[in-house]
Design a protein that fits this description.
It is a single chain. The protein has 178 residues and is an alpha/beta fold. 54% of the residues lie in helices and 12% in strands. A five-stranded parallel β-sheet has the order 2-3-1-4-5, with helices on both faces. 33% of the residues are buried.
Length: 178
């Protein structure tokens, strides 16, 4: 089983970019955020039930990528079921039990929590440009990490400094996990 490193955080915090850069740096694959492709293909208007479909698509893509890697190879994952839970609870004040069960059942090795210190970039799918909402969502993620006792590191900064901070955090994690 590869070492699974998940990148999470509110929208427009550089998750996809960091995943791509880390995949390139460590010469491995990364799993794109399934929700983006699903919403672009099905329309921005989504329902509570659609979030389970998106979650299932995310897990299927993650499983497919992991099956092609050997033990101890790195797999970077742009979002996981914690993201689906926070999204669902924030928008609908509820979360499908299948998503909650997946959080318990699926195991990950390390998380990078992306800070909201990047400027929000508008695109056709993003919903929350307000700094106070972005900060509130960040604290939902932070609370999740702390209370789940999941090893994680908050990543801040811009440009190459942000990427370098992520690389340092991963290298430190890898040294500790040997």
């Amino acid at each position: 089983m590869p070492k699974k490193i998940v990148i999470i955080g509110p929208e427009s915090t550089g998750k996809s970019k960091i995943c791509e850069e880390l995949g390139r740096h460590y010469h491995t694959v990364w799993v794109k955020e399934y929700a983006r492709a699903w919403l672009l293909g099905n329309g921005k208007a989504y329902t509570y039930k659609d979030l389970l479909k998106i979650a299932q698509g995310q897990m299927a893509e993650e499983d497919a990528a992991a099956s092609g890697l050997s033990e101890n190879e790195l797999l970077f994952i742009d979002t996981d079921m914690h993201v689906m839970k926070i999204w669902s609870e924030f928008v609908y004040n509820d979360c499908d039990l299948k998503i909650l069960n997946a959080i318990v059942e699926r195991k990950y090795d390390f998380y990078l929590l992306m800070n909201t210190d990047l400027a929000w970039e508008k695109d056709e799918l993003r919903e929350y440009p307000e700094p106070e909402i972005r900060e509130k969502l960040f604290h939902h993620y932070l609370d999740t990490m702390v209370h789940q006792h999941i090893p994680f590191k908050i990543i801040s900064g811009t440009g190459k400094a942000r990427t370098q901070q992520a690389i340092i955090a991963i290298d430190e994690f890898l040294i500790k996990s040997v």
